[in-house]
Write a structure and sequence with these properties.
This protein has 198 residues and is an alpha+beta fold. Helices cover 45% and strands 12% of the residues. It folds into 2 domains: 111 residues, Alpha-Beta Complex (Aspartate Aminotransferase, domain 1), CATH 3.90.1150.200; 59 residues. Helix 7 packs antiparallel against helix 8. The longest helix is centred in the middle third of the chain and has 17 residues.
């Protein structure tokens, strides 16, 4: 077994109830898929196969979780919604499936990881172009430099300006925002330019 000392340290710091469970699951993983690699991802033990996450374990104050990376495909709709992972809140060894079943699931997850590409989420439809308030559109039409800068920005940046101005409830506020926007645009600045590079 190729043990990662960071996982040893993670288990040593875990709540007393979780230590034997974490050790047991770790042994079952290595028994089922001997070539698995250990690592730490998002501060939790992770088990990788060919560089891809196979499953992860995480320990909390009163429970732990076992999360197969492609668990929805593996267990279908049987996943628990009580906690991350497919087995809900694990507080004792009895909350885990039997060794044979757990190893079967681990091998099935490994086969799935090796053979099938991960499902991709459908791309969201692009948002429509930002609708400009009439006063802002008129101000842009009267200032070529500001308009050129505005039109050179990506759609999300243009939408930020358009929404910020449209959300103003009072005319005075809208006029102030348009003046600020025009000054920023003449300098080629995005609406939130102060926070760039932070």
């Amino acid at each position: 077994m190729s043990a990662d000392p960071r996982i040893d340290a993670y288990i040593a710091k875990a709540q007393p109830f979780a230590r034997p469970i974490l050790e047991h699951v770790r042994k079952r993983i290595h028994a089922a898929v001997p070539e698995v690699e250990e690592s730490i991802k998002w501060s939790a033990p992770a088990f990788l196969l060919d560089g891809r996450i196979l499953l992860m374990m995480a320990c909390f104050k009163q429970h732990m979780a076992l999360n197969f990376w492609r668990g929805q495909e593996l267990r279908g709709g049987a996943a628990s919604d009580e906690a991350m992972g497919q087995f809900g809140r694990i507080t004792a060894m009895a909350d885990l499936p039997g060794d044979a079943e757990l190893e079967r699931l681990i091998r099935e997850a490994a086969d799935l990881s090796r053979s099938a590409p991960a499902p991709r989420k459908a791309k969201a439809a692009p948002k429509p172009a930002a609708e400009l308030h009439a006063d802002f559109a008129a101000a842009l039409d009267g200032d070529e430099a500001a308009k050129a800068a505005f039109e050179a920005f990506p759609p999300g940046c243009r939408r930020e300006y358009a929404d910020w101005i449209a959300e103003a409830k009072r005319e005075e506020t809208r006029a102030r925002r348009i003046a600020t926007a025009m000054g920023n645009l003449r300098e080629g600045k995005k609406l939130h330019w102060k926070y760039e590079g932070c």
